[in-house]
Specification:
alpha/beta, ten-stranded mixed sheet, three-stranded antiparallel sheet
């Protein structure tokens, strides 16, 4: 459980699981296969290559031993492709991770990132039993979502993904979840309405990830700023009604303002506090870096254990590489997006500080 206290409208956070060693996030990429054909997908060819039980168990062992040595909390993430295509392997590893972490005294958070189309009542219950947080990908409303997230064989994925969301909403007391939405120039004008619809439906935690793999024009970036202003207004409006909604990247920006007075540059910690293991056993800086698992960006192999920490670049190294060609150099769209977020968050922080002396939030099963 995570407790957030806002003094003069700004959040400070006490997380009892954040130990002296911080958090080590290790992702297991269970499969390269997927039942969607998202226009912006960065994972490459959807081939039927799955992680073996042996690789998964060895990856878990390496993650647990590394976290224990560092005194860190372990976040074990299940990724793909679509990881629920391999739900039996996922559930088996999640059960083993939970049992071993409890026996070894290691704080553990587990998460699966899914398109939601394969969720069933039984599967949601099983994920809850093993305390697996669900991050479901939905790009707003039906038209916005289906514009860039069709089924692999063609057709709309919204009905199946939305059914998955409804299952999670109905069981939120046992299965904490958040929604991940990709912000793309082709659908940016629908962003605010899409967020409004998700919040109205009951979503309490939402992450907005900009797609810098698509080119952004100046006009589209200006429209993005207007949409983010609208979303900040929605967040404030819900707070005035007694409900705190967690919207990233605003949440992180507000916390940064509270701790340092300004929005500090962020880092995804890829290669340092974040690693991903591909079905082949190759190790990458994060799940996004795996791609088609050619080995070009691999940091090592599971046969040699987890590699020594090695920063891949400031900010999101993968986003930088996609836009500028260099993982250490952020591209213009990423830089502009970060400036917009900082400016909008600063205005939101000022409104919060003006209206609230103290806000205390206790979140059920807070997102990793």
């Amino acid at each position: 459980m995570e407790t957030t206290t806002l003094r003069r409208g700004l959040p400070t956070v006490t997380d009892p699981d954040a130990r002296r060693g911080g958090t080590l996030d290790v992702a297991l990429v269970l499969t390269h296969a997927c039942n969607l054909a998202c226009a912006y997908c960065y994972t490459g060819e959807k081939k039927r290559v799955r992680m073996s039980t042996d690789v998964a168990r060895r990856g878990l062992s390496a993650a647990l031993s590394t976290a224990a040595a560092a005194g860190a909390r372990l976040q074990l993430s299940f990724f793909g492709g679509e990881p629920l295509l391999e739900h039996e392997l996922l559930l088996a590893i999640a059960a083993e991770a939970r049992a071993r972490s409890q026996a070894e005294g290691i704080a553990l958070v587990q998460q699966v990132t899914t398109n939601g189309t394969l969720l069933t009542e039984a599967l949601v219950e099983q994920l809850a039993t093993h305390a697996v947080h669900v991050a479901i990908s939905l790009d707003g409303g039906p038209a916005q979502h289906d514009a860039l997230r069709p089924l692999a064989g063609g057709g709309a994925s919204w009905p199946a993904s939305h059914r998955g969301l409804e299952l999670l909403l109905a069981r939120r007391e046992r299965t904490p979840f958040d929604v991940i939405a990709v912000v793309d120039p082709r659908t940016v004008d629908a962003l605010g309405d899409g967020v409004r619809a998700l919040l109205d439906e009951g979503v309490d935690a939402l992450t907005l990830n900009i797609n810098v793999g698509s080119p952004w024009s100046e006009s589209e970036l200006e429209r993005l700023e207007r949409q983010l202003e609208l979303i900040a207004a929605l967040q404030l409006a819900w707070l005035r009604r007694g409900r705190w909604v967690r919207i990233q990247p605003f949440e992180a920006a507000l916390r940064s303002i509270a701790s340092s007075g300004r929005v500090e540059p962020s880092s995804c910690s890829a290669g340092v506090r974040r690693l991903a293991i591909a079905p082949s056993g190759r190790i990458y800086g994060c799940a996004r870096a795996v791609g088609e698992d050619t080995g070009a960006r691999a940091l090592g192999h599971l046969d040699e254990g987890l590699p020594a920490p090695r920063a891949l670049g400031p900010g999101c190294a993968c986003a930088s590489a996609e836009e500028s060609g260099d993982p250490t150099v952020a591209g213009p769209a990423q830089l502009r997006h970060d400036r917009i977020v900082a400016q909008v968050a600063a205005r939101l922080a000022a409104r919060l500080a003006a209206e609230y002396e103290l806000i205390h939030i206790v979140e059920r099963g807070a997102a990793p």
